[in-house]
C-alpha cells in the first residue's frame, strides 16, 4: 500500500488492490465469495470517486476503510441471521459453511474473527494484507502504539483460545 | 511482511505470531489470479457504466458516514411470511416481473415446476443453472433479474441477482425454509434499490423491479437484516432537521416473522398515518395505534401494530426536531413477558421497557456509561449505542456499538453475545451491561470489580477477574479547591500528573475527555505515557470528582495498570 501518484489509473489500482482485499476480507469474514463481493463493492466506490480518491496520499487506506465498513455491516447481518434462527428455535448448526480459507487455517481464522473488532482488524490488516504498522494505523485511524497494543492483545488472546481448543 | 514487530515471549519467538504470518501468507497465495481480477474489474466498469451516480445522490454527500451503511449491499432477511399466496401476490406491485429459478440442489428428477406470479405477465423458466429470463412482454425487460443460486442449506440461502448487463448484488437469508410454510418474502437492499424476493421450498423469485429506489429516500441510510437501521441524516448546513426517517422493523414472534416498515416524519406530533410504507406489509385493514407517550421520556412516542397473530410490534421514536442522534429499536412478542431496548437518545443511554398492552416506560441509565474507550471519547455525540435484550425464551444480547470519530464504522467494541436456553453462553468474548458493568469470561459471570458501575471497556475487559483497580487515595491527591470553570479541574489533574516527573522522561499527560462534556466535569480521563518498551502506550487515569461548584474535590482516582509485555496486566488503551 504505497503512495499513489495522481496519474495512477483506476484499473491499475484495482489490479493491485483487488487480490489483496479479497485475501484480507476472506480472513475477515470467512467466505471467499462474500469477500470478493465486498472487495468489488469497495472498489466500485473508489471507481465512482476516483478523481477524489487518486489525490489522497494513500488511496489504499481509503478503500480498506470502506471495505472494513462494509464487512462490519456484513458481519452484523450474519449475526442477526443467526439470532433469527435461534429465535425460531432451529438448529444452531445452520450457519453457512465458510469457504475460501485454507483448511489448515480454518480454526485460526475462526478465532481471529472472534476477537474484539480492533484486534481482529489489526491482525487481518497486518498479517494477511501484509501492511506495515503505520499503514494499519492509518486504516484504523489510530496511532502505531495502539496498533501494537491491539496486535499484542490479539495474539495473547488467540494463544489462550487456541490452547483451549486443543484441550 | 513488515518486520517491525519484535514479538517475543520469554526467550523465544511467539508461536502465534509465526502461525499468523504463515497463515496470512497462505491466504495471500490463494488470492484471485489475474484472470479473476480482470473479470472483477470488468464487472465494476460495467456496473459503474450501467448505474451512473444519480443526481439526487449528491444529497448524500454530506452524510457519507450514513451512506456507507446504506450501500452495505445486503440486508439479508427482513421480512415476513405472508398469510397466503394471495397476500403475497397482493403485495407484489403489478409491474414487477418475477424471474424464477429452482434453488434446490441439482436434482436427478426434472427441475421443479415453475411458479408464476399471477399478478404479472412475466415468464418463468425452470432451470438448475443461473438463467436470465427477461420477460418479452415487460417493457422494462432490461430490469429483469435472474436469481443465481449460490448456496443453500436447510436454513439459509445466498443468492446473486444478475441483470442482463450488470451484476446487481448478493442477498442472503437464514429464515428456516422448512419452518415457515410455503411463502416467504425477503427484502434485500442491493446498492440503493430495495428488491423483493419471494421464496418457496425450491424456488426463489426476484421481482424484476425494485420496490424502492433508496436514493429517492436519502434519509433511509441503512437497513439491515431483521432490525431497524435507520439514521436521521445530519441536516445540511442551514437547513432544518431532516423531514423524514424511514425505518424497517422486523419482528419475530411465534413461528412467523413479520416486517413492519415505517416512514416517520421527523416532526412533533406526527400522525400514525405517516407509516405509509408499513401498509404494504400489513394485513389489509391493519391500523397503527395513535402515539403513546413513553413514560419518563419526554417527546418520545410509541406506535403499535399487530400485523399478524402472535406478533406485536412497537416502534418507538423520538420526534422533536433536532433531536439527533436518534435511535430506536424494540420488539416484543407474546412469547415474551416483555422486552426491553436500550438506546442512545440525545446522548443519554435510555432503557425502554415494553410490556404487553401498556405504555412503554423509559429510564435513563448512568450517563457515565458513555465515555468508554474506543467510542470516540472526544466526540460522544457521534456514538450510537444499541443494546437489545430479549428476555425469553433465551437471554439474547446484541452489541453496544460505537461509531468512532474517524468515520470508520467499526464493529462493536463491546459485544454482548447470545445466550442459550440452558443458561450458557455461546460465542461470547466480552460482555457487559450498561447499568452494572460486568464481565463474562469463560462462561462465568463476574461481578464488577470496583465500586463504580462503569469503567472504560478496554480497561474493564482486560481486568483480571479477581483483582481491583489500582485506586489512588484521594487524600493523597493534592488537588486543592474547585472551580466552576469546566476545564480548570481537568487541567489541574493533568498538571498534577506532571509534578515530580523527571524532565528527561516526560510522561506527557493528555486530557482525553471530561464528562459531562460541558459544564463542570465529574469524570476526567487522562492518558499518561510511561515510556519504556515501545509497545507501552501508558496508563489511563479516571478521576471522579464530587462536590462543587465551590468545593470540588477528587472522590476517586482510578489508574489503569501499566502495560507490559510478556505477562502481567495489559491495560493500555
List the helices and strands and how they pair.
The complex is a heterodimer of chains A (about 170) and B (about 575).
Chain A: H1 10-29, H2 32-48, H3 50-53, H4 59-87, H5 106-113, H6 117-128, H7 133-140, H8 144-166
Chain B: E1 8-9, E2 12-13, H1 15-29, H2 34-50, H3 64-70, H4 85-91, E3 99-102, E4 146-152, E5 157-163, E6 166-173, E7 184-190, E8 193-199, E9 203-206, E10 212-213, E11 244-253, E12 256-265, E13 292-293, E14 300-305, E15 311-318, E16 331-333, E17 339-345, E18 348-354, E19 361-364, E20 386-390, E21 396-397, E22 439-441, E23 444-446, H5 457-461, E24 470-472, H6 488-498, E25 510-515, E26 523-528, E27 539-546, E28 553-559
Antiparallel strand pairs in B: 1-2, 3-9, 4-5, 5-6, 7-8, 8-9, 8-10, 11-12, 13-14, 14-15, 15-16, 17-18, 17-20, 18-19, 20-21, 22-23, 24-28, 25-26, 26-27, 27-28
What does this structure look like?
The complex is a heterodimer of chains A (167) and B (573). With 167 residues, chain A is mainly α. Chain A has 2 domains: 103 residues, Orthogonal Bundle (Rna Polymerase Sigma Factor, Chain: A), CATH 1.10.1740; 63 residues, Orthogonal Bundle (Arc Repressor Mutant, subunit A). Chain A is built from 8 helices and no strands. In chain A, helix 2 crosses helix 4 and helix 7 crosses helix 8. In chain B, strand 5 and strand 6 form a beta hairpin. Chain B is globular and about 85 Å long. At the A-B interface, helix 1, helix 2, helix 4, helix 5 and helix 6 of A face helix 1, helix 2 and strand 6 of B.
Amino acid at each position: 500500500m504505497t503512495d499513489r501518484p495522481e496519474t495512477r489509473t483506476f484499473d491499475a489500482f484495482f489490479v493491485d488492490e483487488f487480490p489483496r482485499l479479497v485475501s484480507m476480507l476472506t480472513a475477515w469474514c470467512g467466505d471467499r465469495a462474500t469477500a470478493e463481493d465486498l472487495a468489488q463493492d469497495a472498489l466500485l466506490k473508489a471507481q465512482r470517486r476516483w478523481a477524489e480518491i487518486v489525490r489522497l496520499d494513500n488511496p489504499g487506506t481509503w478503500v480498506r476503510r470502506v471495505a472494513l465498513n462494509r464487512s462490519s455491516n456484513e458481519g452484523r447481518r450474519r449475526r442477526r441471521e443467526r439470532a433469527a434462527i435461534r429465535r425460531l428455535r432451529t438448529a444452531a448448526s445452520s450457519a453457512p459453511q465458510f469457504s475460501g480459507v485454507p483448511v489448515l487455517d480454518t480454526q485460526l481464522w475462526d478465532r481471529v474473527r472472534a476477537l474484539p473488532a480492533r484486534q481482529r482488524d489489526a491482525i487481518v490488516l497486518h498479517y494477511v494484507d501484509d501492511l506495515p504498522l503505520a499503514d494499519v494505523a492509518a486504516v484504523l485511524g489510530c496511532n502505531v502504539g495502539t496498533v501494537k497494543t491491539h496486535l499484542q492483545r490479539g495474539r495473547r488472546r488467540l494463544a489462550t483460545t487456541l490452547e483451549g481448543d486443543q484441550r | 511482511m513488515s518486520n517491525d514487530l519484535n514479538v517475543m515471549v520469554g526467550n523465544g519467538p511467539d508461536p502465534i505470531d509465526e502461525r499468523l504470518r504463515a497463515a496470512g501468507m497462505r491466504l495471500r497465495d490463494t488470492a484471485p489470479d489475474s484472470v479473476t481480477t480482470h473479470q472483477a474489474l470488468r464487472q465494476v466498469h460495467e456496473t459503474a457504466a450501467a448505474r451512473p451516480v444519480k443526481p439526487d445522490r449528491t444529497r448524500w454527500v454530506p452524510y457519507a458516514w450514513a451512506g456507507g451503511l446504506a450501500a452495505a449491499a445486503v440486508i439479508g432477511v427482513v421480512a415476513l411470511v405472508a398469510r397466503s399466496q394471495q397476500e403475497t401476490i397482493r403485495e407484489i406491485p403489478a409491474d414487477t416481473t418475477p424471474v424464477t429459478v429452482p434453488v434446490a440442489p441439482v436434482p436427478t428428477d426434472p427441475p421443479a415446476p415453475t411458479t408464476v406470479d399471477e399478478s404479472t405477465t412475466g415468464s418463468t423458466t425452470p432451470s438448475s443453472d443461473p438463467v436470465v429470463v427477461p420477460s418479452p412482454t415487460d417493457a422494462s425487460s432490461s430490469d429483469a433479474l435472474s436469481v443465481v443460486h449460490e448456496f443453500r442449506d436447510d436454513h439459509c440461502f445466498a443468492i446473486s441477482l444478475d441483470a442482463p448487463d450488470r451484476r446487481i448484488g448478493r442477498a442472503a437469508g437464514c429464515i428456516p425454509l422448512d419452518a415457515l410454510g410455503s411463502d416467504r418474502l425477503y427484502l434485500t437492499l442491493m446498492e440503493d434499490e430495495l428488491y423483493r424476493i419471494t421464496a418457496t421450498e425450491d424456488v426463489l423469485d426476484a421481482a424484476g423491479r425494485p420496490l424502492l429506489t433508496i436514493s429517492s429516500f436519502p434519509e433511509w441510510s441503512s437497513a439491515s437484516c431483521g432490525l431497524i437501521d435507520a439514521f436521521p441524516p445530519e441536516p445540511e448546513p442551514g437547513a432544518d432537521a431532516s423531514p423524514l426517517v424511514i425505518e424497517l422493523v422486523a419482528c419475530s414472534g411465534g413461528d412467523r416473522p413479520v416486517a413492519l416498515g415505517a416512514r416517520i416524519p421527523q416532526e412533533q406530533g406526527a400522525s400514525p398515518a405517516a407509516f405509509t410504507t408499513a401498509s404494504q406489509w400489513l394485513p389489509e385493514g391493519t391500523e397503527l395505534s395513535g402515539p403513546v407517550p413513553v413514560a419518563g421520556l419526554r417527546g418520545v412516542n410509541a406506535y403499535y401494530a399487530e400485523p399478524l397473530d402472535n406478533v406485536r410490534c412497537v416502534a418507538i421514536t423520538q420526534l422533536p426536531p433536532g433531536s439527533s442522534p436518534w435511535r430506536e429499536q424494540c420488539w416484543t412478542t407474546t412469547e415474551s413477558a416483555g422486552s426491553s431496548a436500550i438506546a442512545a437518545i440525545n446522548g443519554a443511554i435510555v432503557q425502554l421497557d415494553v410490556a404487553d398492552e401498556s405504555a412503554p416506560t423509559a429510564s435513563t441509565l448512568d450517563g457515565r456509561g458513555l465515555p468508554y474507550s474506543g467510542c470516540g471519547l472526544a466526540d460522544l455525540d457521534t456514538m450510537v449505542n444499541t443494546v437489545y435484550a430479549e428476555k425469553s425464551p433465551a437471554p439474547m444480547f446484541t452489541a453496544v456499538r460505537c461509531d468512532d470519530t474517524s468515520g470508520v464504522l467499526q464493529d462493536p467494541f463491546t459485544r454482548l453475545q447470545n445466550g442459550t436456553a440452558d443458561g450458557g453462553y455461546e460465542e461470547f468474548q466480552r460482555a457487559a451491561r450498561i447499568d452494572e458493568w460486568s464481565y463474562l469470561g469463560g462462561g462465568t459471570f463476574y461481578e464488577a470489580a470496583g465500586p463504580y458501575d462503569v469503567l472504560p471497556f478496554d480497561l474493564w475487559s482486560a481486568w483480571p477477574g479477581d483483582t481491583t483497580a489500582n485506586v489512588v487515595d484521594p487524600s493523597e491527591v493534592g488537588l486543592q479547591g474547585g472551580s466552576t470553570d469546566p476545564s480548570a479541574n481537568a487541567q489541574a489533574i493533568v498538571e498534577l500528573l506532571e509534578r515530580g516527573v523527571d524532565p528527561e522522561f516526560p510522561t506527557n499527560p493528555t486530557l482525553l475527555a471530561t464528562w459531562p462534556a460541558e459544564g463542570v466535569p465529574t469524570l476526567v480521563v487522562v492518558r499518561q505515557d510511561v515510556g519504556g518498551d515501545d509497545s507501552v502506550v501508558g496508563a489511563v487515569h479516571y478521576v471522579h470528582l464530587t462536590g462543587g461548584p465551590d468545593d470540588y474535590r477528587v472522590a476517586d482516582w482510578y489508574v489503569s495498570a501499566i502495560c507490559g509485555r510478556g505477562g502481567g496486566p495489559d491495560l493500555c488503551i
